């Protein structure tokens, strides 16, 4: 049985493990009235404050519980402060569909909250094209809006699994979707007398609340390049990151060499002919313009003129 009794400076909770018949003649109506008075902020009745009725034991551990068959009374620690809680953000399902025009940050939208995702490239970013030939993509299968929180959660999940399994220098992860669209919220008051203060749907444009990425069907969300022997690890990492997004996604193994636009056969051929040069995660094509000797030194067969018979 629990009784709230108001003290001089704070409110304490009394836990009594005795039946109502053993409280010195106190009836259920008396205890019910004491509870109602405690809720109203009043002091308990005099019959409950008698030493024979209510005599708390010395302070014990708040986590300890007395047995029902014992006369020991445990008094929990008093509450000396009030905790303030911050409300959670609105669910992202409220901003799932691409209904209106894009609303990015501009001179018309000057103040907006920062995006949750701030890192879009991680892993071994400076690896050459030759180091990571395998590439896999996580592709969206719906036209929707993805919050920056979802992108950050997927990035963390994919990075953590690959780093733990094969090492931090065994891959290069790139987030391909960017949350540029700003969503708004029209906050409503929920206190007493709110109907006299708020204006309802009059002027319901709302204030900037968060950022989302507008994606289409077939758009790449995540791309990972690595060595061929780490294919299974990357596929599992993308599968786990897939659960951080709403809607449907597909994991597609690229036929290209890494992040380049060349297929594996074309890359191997052009690389052997010396017609491309490495440029970080991509390649650049050698142009035919320039000194003839320079082009011939690269070994480009298209620049070599075969002699013809007269």
Automatic annotation (TrEMBL):
GO terms for molecular function: structural constituent of ribosome. Keywords: Ribonucleoprotein, Ribosomal protein. The keyword Ribonucleoprotein applies. PROSITE patterns: RIBOSOMAL_L10E (PS01257). Residues 45-74 are annotated as: Disordered. It holds the Pfam family Ribosomal_L16. GO terms for biological process: translation. Belongs to the universal ribosomal protein uL16 family. PANTHER family: 60S RIBOSOMAL PROTEIN L10. This is Uncharacterized protein. The lineage of its organism: Eukaryota, Fungi, Dikarya, Basidiomycota, Pucciniomycotina.
């Amino acid at each position: 049985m629990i009784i709230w009794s108001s003290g001089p400076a704070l409110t304490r909770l009394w836990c009594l493990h005795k039946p109502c018949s053993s409280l010195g003649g106190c009836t259920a109506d008396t205890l019910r009235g004491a509870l109602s008075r405690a809720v109203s902020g009043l002091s308990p009745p005099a019959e409950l404050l008698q030493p024979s009725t209510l005599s708390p034991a010395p302070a014990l551990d708040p986590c300890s519980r007395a047995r029902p068959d014992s006369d020991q009374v445990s008094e929990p620690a008093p509450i000396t402060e009030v905790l303030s809680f911050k409300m959670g953000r609105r669910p992202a399902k409220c901003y799932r569909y691409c209904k209106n025009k894009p609303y990015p940050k501009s001179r018309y939208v000057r103040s907006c909250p920062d995006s949750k995702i701030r890192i879009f490239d991680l892993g071994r970013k400076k690896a050459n094209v030759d180091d990571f030939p395998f590439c896999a993509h996580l592709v969206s299968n719906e036209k929707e809006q993805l919050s920056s929180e979802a992108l950050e959660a997927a990035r963390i999940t994919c990075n953590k699994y690959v780093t733990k399994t094969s090492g931090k220098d065994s891959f290069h992860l790139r987030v391909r979707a960017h949350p540029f669209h700003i969503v708004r919220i029209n906050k409503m008051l929920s206190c007493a007398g709110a109907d006299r203060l708020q204006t309802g749907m009059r002027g319901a444009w709302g204030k900037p609340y968060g950022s989302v990425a507008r994606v289409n069907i077939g758009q790449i969300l995540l791309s990972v390049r690595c060595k061929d022997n780490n294919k299974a690890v990357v596929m599992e990492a993308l599968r786990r990151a897939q659960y951080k997004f709403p809607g449907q996604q597909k994991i597609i193994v690229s036929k290209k060499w890494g992040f380049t636009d060349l297929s594996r056969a074309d890359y191997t051929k052009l690389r052997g002919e010396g017609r491309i040069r490495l440029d970080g995660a991509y390649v650049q094509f050698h142009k035919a313009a320039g000194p003839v000797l320079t082009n011939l030194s690269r070994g480009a067969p298209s620049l070599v003129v075969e002699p013809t018979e007269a």
